[in-house]
Write a structure and sequence with these properties.
Elements: E1 7-11, E2 14-18, H1 24-39, H2 51-66, E3 71-77, E4 80-91, E5 96-103, H3 112-127, E6 132-138, H4 142-150, E7 154-164, E8 169-178, H5 179-184
Parallel strand pairs: 5-6
Antiparallel strand pairs: 1-2, 2-3, 3-4, 4-5, 6-8, 7-8
Helix pairs in contact: 1-2
Length: about 180
């Protein structure tokens, strides 16, 4: 049985931990601060219009975690939430997980996301027994594309008009890595 930890220490000042309803206010404030920045690549912002929406989202993520269908990790830097890494979907039959992520604009370019995603990938592939991790990103999103490339993920191709982004279709590129590939790194 796959058991995903509640927290992963990345560095002394960098922690990934499962979101709780009491985090909703801080997380919503971060979304609000970054709304214009995130809107270019994330299609869910219209579903996050209030702290209550954020509470509902976190509770839904907790339920999904209890059912082994996914989970939401908050990225905490020096005890402040600066973004998220989520296990958006889990295929237990094939031990595959799909990861998504976003980071506060003011914290980008420091390696925080690469370290955070690498830590989750390592936990999933090494400790939790997953065989494959997939990351799907907009093909023209250089910041997000750089993450799987830095970690040695394979580019498995582009899906045309894969994501509806408010007013346009966006092509997405899928990257993946298997446990045996990760071990060789």
């Amino acid at each position: 049985m796959v058991q995903i930890p509640d927290a992963v220490r990345v560095e002394p000042s960098l922690l990934l931990r499962i979101a709780r309803p009491e985090d909703a206010k801080e997380l919503y404030s971060l979304v609000e601060k970054n709304r214009v920045y995130l809107r270019e690549w994330l299609p869910w912002l219209d579903d996050a219009e209030s702290i209550e929406d954020e509470i509902d989202f976190i509770k839904d993520q907790q339920k999904r975690a209890s059912l082994k269908k996914g989970c939401l990790f908050l990225i905490e830097l020096e005890n402040d939430i600066v973004g998220t890494v989520s296990l958006n979907s889990i295929d237990l039959g094939n031990l595959t997980g799909w990861i998504g992520y976003w980071l506060d604009k003011d914290h980008s370019g420091r390696g925080i996301m690469t370290k955070s995603v690498a830590a989750i990938v390592d936990v999933l592939l090494v400790s939790c027994g997953f065989n494959r991790i997939v990351i799907e990103v907009g093909e023209n999103n250089p910041s997000s594309l750089a993450i799987p490339k830095r970690m040695g993920f394979r580019n498995e191709g582009t899906s045309l008009e894969r994501l509806w982004m408010y007013d346009r279709w966006v092509n997405s590129t899928q990257f993946a890595i298997t446990a045996s590939e990760w071990e060789k790194k």
